[in-house]
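User: Working on a comparison across species. This one is Phosphoinositide 3-kinase regulatory subunit 6 from Lepidothrix coronata. Can you predict its structure so I can line it up against the others?
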Amino acid sequence: MDSTEVESDILRRVRTLLRELDGHHPACQCDRGMLRWTLHKKIDQNPSNSSVLVRILVKELERAERGDFRHYIIPLLHTLMYTLIKAPCISEELCGRVYDFCKKLLTLPKPFCTIGLDYATRLKVERTAPGTLYQRMVISEQSLKSDPYPYQEKIFIFADPELLSEAICNALLTDTEAAQVSQSPRACMCYVITHAMQAALGEGCDLGALKGRLQDMPTSEVEHWFQQVVVAVECAGSEGSTARGQHTARLEEICRALLSSSQAGNAPLGGLQDTPLPNPTISFHLWTEDNQLWKELVLFIRPLSQSCEPDCLSQDLDTFEIQDIVSDCECCEQTRFSVLSTDSGIERDLPVAVEEPLAPCGAETEQSRLHRRGGIKKKPSPLESVTFLQAGCCSPGVKPPVKLQKRSGVPQDAAAPVQKLHTARIVLLGDDRILGRLAQAYHSLRKRETRRVFLTPRLNLQFYYIPVVAGQPDTSAVVDHPSSGHEELCEVARYLGRADPWYESNINTLCHVIPKLATMPPSPSKHLVTDLFITDVIAYYVRMGLQPVCFQVYAVKIFFNDPAQEPAEDVFLTELCTQGQDGISHRELSMTKKKTTLDGPGIDLTVTYRKVMVSDREKELDMSLRSTGLVMKAIPSQEAEDLVCLNVTITEIIRTSNLSGRSFSAVANRLKTRNITIRSTEQRPFTVCLDKDSRRTYRNVISLEVSPCLEPSYCLQKTRTMKFSLHETEDVGLVKYMPKSLLLPINTFAGVTQ
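Assistant: Here's the predicted structure for Phosphoinositide 3-kinase regulatory subunit 6 from Lepidothrix coronata:
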């Protein structure tokens, strides 16, 4: 096709993408969610059309900004940036137009200004050193060793084998493993070199000769030239816009040195060519253990190859002792004996031999000038706790903390926070029940970090959610109440889809696509589709979905009818459901019938709650009623409603008398609250189920208390503050600037659009 036909075809595809955002779905339902993917794949087949697509997207963005089409802006901008990152070469003029548009978004409300600022910052570097965004993405995702850019990322996919069928789990495992087979570190380093050269030199780069020269090189030489290119690109990006010409000259010099004189210029230049963007490092996990998430994160920060003894680290993981992992490899020391200290405790009185530093047993062990063996392990220092508290203050929606005063006698560099070089992107596959497990694991992780800081100052933790619903392999995992349908099992996904249309278009459509692709009979075409589509969509989601939607985690304290049984404490994210111990069916509740007893079905309950009012003031109320059960939903049915609010529906039994005798009817009693207490006045037990998961069912319950779950770091600092100000009721000091409630952030493309 000529240039006019190409431009018309791309424009038609972009307009079709926008019509889907307006609710005009394609005629073929199998194309839902694939329009963006097919658009990018078409450009990958002909990289020279990247500039055409970027120019069209810029025009559509400017048109959407002028008109009343703000819901187009974020999808178009994500599509544009993803094209720009993968493009072999984009002119400075076109990159500048995108940069200027991103700056215009700073005048709009969130999330437009947030995303605009993020992309403007990236584009400023890309204009100076073309290829920087591609290079940084590959280095971090493939964990390539690079001193100028030492960041590492990894995607962890978690699926619950009791919620997804074996066929789906096996298909996802096969696809993720196949995506990593052809991605060696050597190949990824070659990709970085060729993309950087072509991005800076354009069509003047002899890419064929460059690829041939790199293919004939030993790996050590490839790594040498890779480091040369990375240093050149990173230095140019940090020097400012005036360094673009110098950057181009520097890469030309590296290219001439890399190519031999006999190879340079032997073949005509072939124009722009595609350099693949490798799939990110992905690991697939069947979530079978409660502490599995924490174990994988610890191994990501400190792999077995970097620890002193693999057996020691594995034993520490199994015994849940984070103190042994982050200590200076004390697990490798010999058996300790009680040693009587005879020194004065003054440093100058120690013999010279003692002052020599001991060899560390681990790669990350910190050198210390004095090392006394045989001592008792010290408690976590105050500096470690402050580091954790400062990290906790960086949560979304928290006021920036005041500058901490330096303590006398503490070196300034000792209190400096550890740089976060690792990013773990946790992708959950399933329905609301796996998100309930995530809330449990996240709460446990935060409590563990309160006791001993390890992951918080070193790791960026990002959560992603892809709804997957198929035929349930285990029917006992579904609770017998009205919310057991497929739609009710994906309340979080439906809320995110309403809040973010791009999430609805690209991610929610996978709900039934993944099971369909996983169960297709094996064929060459099927293998091609699953390898490209599922893996590519997951990669696109984690790369571009950086705006969190924060969900309140609720704490529940459960009391049992046996006085000897300790109360249970748990958390839930989406729903809490209670039901009479006898399990009365809904059909019986919907009919009025004559009863031989005075009380009728259900049990007597006392409900005490704080009513949520429009003025945000709280009013405490209580009531007594007879009920067969209740449902507390934490996910609102509309995105405009408050996320930090429980919608409680109590099935109340109303007794009426008529000529035929006494009858009973069920009435839905609804209320909104954040704190609620339910108590059985006649001590008759009932059951409690959390997050629609029958595996998390409590029986013989007579009372429960529900409230927003508090952030463990807030509780720790609050307790410390209360020790010194017993009569102080309000938050003072550092506590004022800390997140009070525990929020679970799930990333989408836009967050919540205002």
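For your comparison, note: The two ends are 42 Å apart (CA to CA).

User: Helpful, thanks.
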